[in-house]
Amino acid sequence: MLTVRAPATSANLGSGFDVFGVALDRPADIVRVEKAERTTIEVTGVGARYIPEDPERNTVGAVAEALDAPAHIRIDKGVRPASGLGSSAASAAAAAVALNELYDRGHTREELVPVAAEGEAVVSGDAHADNVAPAILGGFTVVTDDGVTSVDADLPLVACLPDIVVSTRDARGVVPERVSMTDLVATVGNAATLVAGMARNDARLVGRGMDDPVVTPARAALIDGYDAVCEAAREAGAHGVTISGAGPAVLAVCRPGGRRDVATAMVDAFEATGTEAVAYLSRVGEGSTVYR
């Protein structure tokens, strides 16, 4: 048996729609694999009852097929499905890393990113790599058609998850198909600022670069209390706040030592709207980790 821990992730980070991603140090999925004649899947943990165990409908089944690596796969979910924290990506990433090693396929971590992305397609309909890339590689990642660039970073983060569900398909459905030149220029500038901030481990720059005039405002309407939560986080000291992935989780980048105040403010703001929430005090974390 081989075991892999794959982290939750946050995609987009506001200005980097379908391009940026970051690994969180918590929560995480644990995936255990054993060689078998055919692939079977067992799911336990958070939201397990909502996750199909049919290999043709589960992300890890697609990964096993892509690697020609049949196995009995046990998934212990620590990342809630439909959370905006890369739940399906965590499972797909862990399976890709585990099966690659179990069967000695010899792929590099970078080569496993598109393999895991094929697993994502089972859930979202498209093989997006903005979550699986940081789940495999760790740190902050930039995904383009030419490949993946990763940057080591060490920044304090808070991911606040309300007790509501926003599906990836619904969240993609509200994304505008056209943008103005003014919004385009603003988004490019913010994205460049965020990348510089990650390279410098500068939370203030990252926070400034998370502003997004296009996708985030369209998706905010799907998250009850979003504006109030953002305001509360900033008042508590957050340098930047945005929707994590497709939502409903909300991500804040914080000053050192400031995560607890921000987390409390975000949870309280959600609860003031009648929505229960949990906050993860996190930071930019490592990618998938193999245990024997």
UniProtKB/TrEMBL annotation:
Domain GHMP kinase C-terminal: 195-269
Subcellular localization(s) per the UniProt record: Cytoplasm
Listed GO CC annotations: cytoplasm
Enzyme Commission number(s) from the entry: 2.7.1.39
Gene Ontology biological-process annotations: threonine biosynthetic process
Keywords: Amino-acid biosynthesis, ATP-binding, Cytoplasm, Kinase, Nucleotide-binding, Threonine biosynthesis, Transferase
Function text: Catalyzes the ATP-dependent phosphorylation of L-homoserine to L-homoserine phosphate.
HAMAP family: Homoser_kinase
Name used for this protein in its record: Homoserine kinase
Gene name tied to this protein: thrB
